[in-house]
Design goal:
CATH class: Alpha Beta
Distance between the termini: 23 Å
CATH architecture: 4-Layer Sandwich
Strand content: 25-35%
Number of strands: 15
Largest sheet: 8 strands, mixed
CATH topology: Metallo-beta-lactamase, Chain A
């Protein structure tokens, strides 16, 4: 199996490895408390995070193409679901990942559809354990005629803190004014897929507003996502393209 070289950076990135034959990737960072945070790309808006023995799943979906078999993953300790659209919310995947003690943080409509989980609305937060916390932040469309896809106040993005390492998972959103309050982000996931989320230009503008150390464009479908990296040249933001198509 062929791997890309490891990268060491002063900001605390331990390594970054991409498997060329499967187009998956693993990125490993160091949190301020010295523990590692590992991101494993699945696809589209689904990602897996490992931290200090925890298995964390974001918007797990098994029905996209190619299908993801969640029975091959460890059971989850923590699951975040941004909203109820089919490419973010999948009852079968959640059932497969669930074990005794799994904590689900979801937006209000998903809680009603799922029948369990902890509801977080925009601006609400929760502490999973002393070194792990979650804040739900707004995610919505602003372009006229597109607000029907993600109306203001319904859906969530999340700021997830793991040992002081701050991760912004934007969910389905455009570059909204509330992003100006999202600060001190180590890693950001921004969606790039109009008409449902952002154009590359919007994503670059959002990235400059948030100023994460590392940016993963995701949920990008057929969008020419490398344009985001080109637009952010000279910004100091490390843009990493993974298989989040």
């Amino acid at each position: 199996m062929k791997h890309a070289p490891s990268i060491l950076l002063a900001m605390g990135i331990l390594s970054s490895t991409a498997t060329a034959d499967t187009n998956t990737a693993t990125d490993i960072f160091q949190a301020p408390n010295g523990k590692t945070v590992t991101f494993i790309c699945i696809q589209h808006a689904s990602l897996r995070i490992q931290y200090d023995g925890l298995e964390i799943q974001i918007d797990p979906v098994s029905t996209l193409t190619p299908a993801t078999d969640y029975s091959q993953f460890p059971k989850a300790d923590l699951v975040l679901v941004t909203h109820e659209h089919f490419d973010h919310f999948d009852k079968a995947a959640l059932a497969t990942l669930r074990k005794d003690g799994t904590v689900f943080y979801v937006n209000p409509p998903v809680r009603g559809m799922l029948g369990f989980g902890t509801t977080l609305g925009n601006g609400e937060g929760a502490t999973f354990r002393e070194d792990v916390s979650v804040e739900a932040v707004p995610a919505y469309n602003t372009t006229p005629g597109r607000d029907k896809f993600h109306p203001k106040g319904r859906d969530n993005g999340y700021v997830l803190s793991l040992g002081g390492f701050r991760i912004y998972i934007a969910g389905d959103t455009e570059d909204i004014p509330e992003m100006a309050t999202i600060r001190n982000i180590d890693v950001a996931f921004l969606p790039v897929n109009q008409p449902y989320t952002m154009t590359p230009e919007q994503a670059a503008r959002a990235a400059r507003t948030i100023a994460p150390k590392v940016l993963f464009p995701y949920h990008y479908s057929q969008t020419p996502v490398r344009l985001v990296a080109e637009l952010l040249e000279g910004s100091g933001i490390d843009v990493r393209i993974r298989n989040y198509q």
